[in-house]
Design goal:
Blueprint: H1 2-19, H2 26-41, H3 45-66, H4 76-115, H5 118-124, H6 129-166, H7 172-180, H8 185-211, H9 217-247
Length: about 250
């Protein structure tokens, strides 16, 4: 188990060395980069918006129901909703969700290219297939992930506001006051910094599993599943490490 993990990690490092080499044609690279930003990033906006607005609303409802102590100020719901979204959900939990969407997309796409021998054809023509296929995906997703993180934060807070606006569970004034109370700007940067690492993990690990697929369509499905599982575990591990480093 340990030896196999070390071998896989070494193979992953060699793969990254192939990926991050100088592109043969910069024009083609930037065209692919724009395409991948649109496919992996922009196309993920609806999922981020839908999940974030409902999670923000659920957090606000649960905090309102459970904070019944007279010792707790009435603005605690807004403050707790903001802290949960900024510190954990809009970075870590959202990237776990995106690992399922983006990660499986990358692994299955590259895996299909492998089993249909498109990657082999590129290698025969002297093209660095890892660089040509994978690098635009990694850089594109890493560049766009802060947009998704900030959007998730905003929409999640908006979801809590909708609960305050359209129900009588809490007042809008107290919710907004709680959002503004004891605001720490570093928490926003903390969430954004974490997403850079998580986006790199999702895109590179998924590409790795897809690139080294052997077999047919069944193995492509297995590689996609393994990519999502491995990405999720590594995101949780990185979350612990980054939290210790950035918030100590």
């Amino acid at each position: 188990m340990v030896i196999s993990s070390i071998k896989t990690f070494g193979k992953y490092c060699i793969f990254l060395a192939k990926v991050f080499s100088r592109p043969d044609k910069w024009k083609v690279f930037f065209q692919s980069l724009v395409f991948e930003i649109n496919k992996l990033g922009v196309d993920s906006i609806p999922l981020v918006v839908i999940v974030s607005v409902f999670i923000g609303a659920v957090i606000a409802i649960q905090m309102t129901i459970n904070i019944v102590s007279p010792l707790m100020p009435s603005y605690s719901t807004g403050l707790a909703t903001r802290e949960i979204l900024l510190l954990e959900f809009s970075s870590s939990m959202m990237c776990l969700i995106l690992a399922g969407k983006v990660g499986s997309n990358i692994a299955s796409e590259i895996g299909t290219m492998r089993v249909t021998e498109q990657i082999d054809a590129m290698d025969i023509m002297g093209i660095n297939s890892a660089n040509f296929i994978v690098m635009p995906k990694i850089i594109g997703f890493v560049l766009f992930i802060p947009v998704l993180c900030i959007l998730s934060m905003f929409v999640g807070i908006l979801g809590g506001w909708l609960v305050a606006e359209f129900t009588d569970m809490l007042s809008v004034e107290k919710y907004i006051y709680g959002i503004q109370t004891f605001f720490n700007e570093w928490y926003v940067w903390y969430g954004i910094i974490k997403t850079f690492f998580f986006a790199f993990i999702i895109s590179s690990v998924s590409a790795f599993y897809g690139y080294y697929v052997k077999g047919g369509a069944l193995e492509v499905g297995k590689a996609s599943t393994n990519a999502v599982v491995a990405s999720s575990i590594l995101i949780l591990l990185a979350d612990v490490i980054l939290t210790k480093l950035l918030l100590q």
